[in-house]
Amino acid sequence: MSARDTILQRLRNRTGDQLPTPERDFTAMERPDWSTGDKLARFRSAMEPVHGEIHNCRGGDWVATLSGLLSDRRVSRMLVGSGAEPLATLRASTQELPDILVYDEPVENWQQHLFNDVDAGLTTTRGGIAETGSLILWPTAEEPRLTSLVPPIHVALLKASELFGTLREAMAAQQWSHGMPTNALLVSGPSKTADIEQTLAYGVHGPRELIVLVVE
Amino acid sequence: MNEQKASDTVDVREFHPRARAALADPQIRQNFRSAMDGLMGKRRTAFEGWDLEALRTLGASVRQNALAHLPDLLEQLEARLTANGIRVHWALDGDEACRIVTDICRARDAHSVIKGKSMVSEEMHLNHHLEQHGIDALESDLGEYLVQLAGETPSHIIMPAIHKNTGEISELMHDRTGTERSTDVEYLTASARQQLREKFMNADVGISGVNFAVAETGTLCLVENEGNGRMTTTVPPCHIAVTGIEKVVPTLADMSALLALLTRSATGQHITTYFNMISGPRRGEELDGPEEVHVVLVDNGRSGIYQDDELIDTLRCIRCGACMNHCPVYTRVGGHAYGTTYPGPIGKILMPHLIGLDEGRHLPSASSLCGACGEVCPVKIPIPDLLVRLRRESVDGDRLHPSVVRGHGAKRSTAEALAWKTWQWVHAHPAAYRLGTAAASHLRALQPDRLGAWTQYRSAPKLAARTLHQQVKDRRS
Ligand code: SF4
User: Fold this and answer.
1) Ligand 1 centre from B373 Cα, in Å?
2) Cα distance between residue A140 and residue A145, in whole Å
3) What region does B299 belong to: left with phi over 0, alpha with psi -120 to 50, or beta?
4) In a domain, B423, yes or no
5) Residue with CA closest to ligand 1 atom 8
6) Is residue B161 assigned to a domain?
7) Are B295 and B436 in the same domain?
8) Does residue B463 fall inside a structural domain?
9) Which domain holds residue B457?
10) Among candidates B204, B198, B193, which has minimal Cα distance to B142?
11) Residue ranges covered by each domain of chain A
């Protein structure tokens, strides 16, 4: 008999009593219906203590904010997905921006370059979670997974209108149970570790900095 | 059953000498004390404003429901994962799981493996096995990386290198990798980042654990802060996830409840930096991600624990480590004293199933039964009750229950058994009892003042001059 069948058979032919199935009461996880303003404030108060940097922008203003932040950091090359947005807005902008590298080739063709020469990655988000200060990332062929992981700075665009109270709210509203992408992520700050004597250090394997541009 | 291979060097039975040595080492005590104090404080703060009792009840009910439907959920998970393009393997024990992983590596002609944190792979002694087959396995979680550099095993399930302080780590990195000596944690971290980046790029296979496996969508969830888990599961062309069969939950909503409890209980974080949900290999037009994803579902004793109405609660565990952070024994002796893959309270109730009560005979007794572990456990595992059950089983075994734990009765001693038999008989026979207590009162002068460890910090209790029966009689008359 295969290991699979042996394991399943052992579990099915369990010797003891009927196992308990107590009711699952999720009330303890519920949060009040926060207004957008409340959600923004909570998002900020959850993300800032873990070193996420948040900037509020109005409409297309975000490019101006981005331009300032990137030139302060001397970013010379920024990775962007190949989707229509935000690429079109960046290209149409007259702001001073770093060289834009479009992620449109399989990573195998340019891995060294990606790991060694890219200073920042810009991604969209599929919303955020106020309670925990998290961004929902939903990588696709147009916005591949490594954009938010390999470059030392990750810039994420978040629409204020897409801020949810809790993870459960987001999952229900976006019907995650109907199908998940190959990879989905919650990102709540820059990469960090406390493995050396409980002392926090940022930028271990992922980005050292996370910048969130909240577009209202 | 997969015997502990670490026990080539570490004998689990030698708990007492190791504990004594750790207690006499001020550095170890200092390192653990300060780390555990920090973690306890952070956990308290993270749950402020929550109804923690209600949350723990929810956590327990989520896990209990999942366990009640375990075989169905595993089949559902397998079907969803397969539909998503993930290959599913089943392993009865650690050795079989190691073989499956090695075979996948061989089929890809893989020589270098990069690993994310996985306690199940520690349980399987996977690194050892891969090495024997000429495959290089490098740990990428910073704590695990340091432990591997030192040739040690993790001393904590969440913070593997917690037994070392910055100075010791600086020395270690200097010796092994040529890093400049420094007490600047940022510098040490940056050096490790540099050393590991190359490895990520060149690894043939990435191996990770799994925190939760969601049956309804066929999703593997990983919790982490560093990003090494994302690297491991995204950069190499092949990803292998190894997980215990108990990690499956029915729905995303169940997962969200456990996630809320896990990170707050473990490190006092509302959420970790990354919550990585993997539901398939690179697909269609995608430009990155592994072309192959495998899952190895590992039993290794779990279906045995599953048979027992009490011990099954052990399988609720979500590996948060809160029980060790709050354990007065763990905090003092540290993780290595136990000599087991999982140290602390969870280790004491889990390891006897993996290695048997013969080898693990001291584990259930390495506790003061203060109850702290049971009080903090986010899924309400009655750890102290299970310790008592295992203690009973280690001396009595089958006579109490049809036992599912190997090596039950291993600690039974004829002298102790006889002493308790006599005690039982005397208490059931009033005449003998009176004779015995009267004799004890008369001979009280002969009672020694020193009673070994008991009188090291206390004075010995004195037998009364007159027995209770006699005193009651005096009062009545
Ligand atoms: S037994 Fe409970 S407290 Fe201990 S690691 Fe498991 S879930 Fe956490």
Assistant:
1) 8
2) 7
3) alpha
4) no
5) B320
6) yes
7) no
8) yes
9) 430-476
10) B193
11) 34-192+203-215
Whole-number pLDDT of residue B412:
85
Q: Confirm or reject: Cβ of B319 under 6 Å from ligand 1.
A: yes
Question: What's the angle, vertex CA B353, arms to CA B348 and CA B357, rounded to 5?
Answer: 75
Q: Could you tell me the two tokens for B391? A: 């203690």
Q: Provide the CATH number for the domain formed by A34-192+203-215 in this structure.
A: 3.40.50.10420
Q: Are B290 and B206 in contact (CB under 8 A)?
A: yes
The count of other CB atoms within 10 Å of the CB of residue A55 is: 16
What pLDDT is recorded for position B428? 95
Amino acid B207: pLDDT: 98
Amino acid at B412: R
Query: Is there an atom of ligand 1 within 6 Å of B327 CB?
Result: no
Q: Does B203 touch chain A (CB under 8 A)?
A: no
Same domain? For B203 and B55 the reply is yes
Average pLDDT over residues A188-212: 93
B321 lines ligand 1 (CB under 6 A): yes
Prediction pTM value = 0.93
Domain end: B248, B283, B304, which one?
B304
Q: What is the pLDDT of residues B39-69, one digit of tens each?
A: 999 999 999 999 999 999 999 999 999 999 9
The answer to whether A179 contacts B267, with C-beta atoms less than 8 Å apart, is: no
Span A86-95, mean pLDDT?
A: 94
The answer to whether the peptide bond before residue A86 is cis (omega within 30 degrees of 0) is: yes
The answer to whether B307 faces chain A, any CB pair under 8 Å, is: yes
Mean pLDDT of all residues in B250-267: 97
- Lowest mean pLDDT, pick from A64-78, B89-103, B151-165: B151-165
CA B364, distance to chain mean position in Å, is 13
Task: Indicate the pLDDT class of residue B398, thresholds 50, 70 and 90.
Answer: low
Q: Of B304, B330, B345, which residue is a domain's last?
A: B304
Contact A114, A146 (CB under 8 A): yes
Nearest of A115, A137, A149, A152 to residue A183 by alpha carbon: A137
Taking the Cβ of residue A37 and every Cβ of chain B, the question of whether any pair is shorter than 8 Å is answered with: no
Residue nearest to atom 3 of ligand 1 (CA): B377
Distance from CA of A92 to the nearest CA of B (A): 26
Q: Can you give the pLDDT at residue B3? A: 37
For chain B, the domain total comes to: 2
10 Å CB burial of residue B453 (0-12, 13-18, 19+) is: exposed
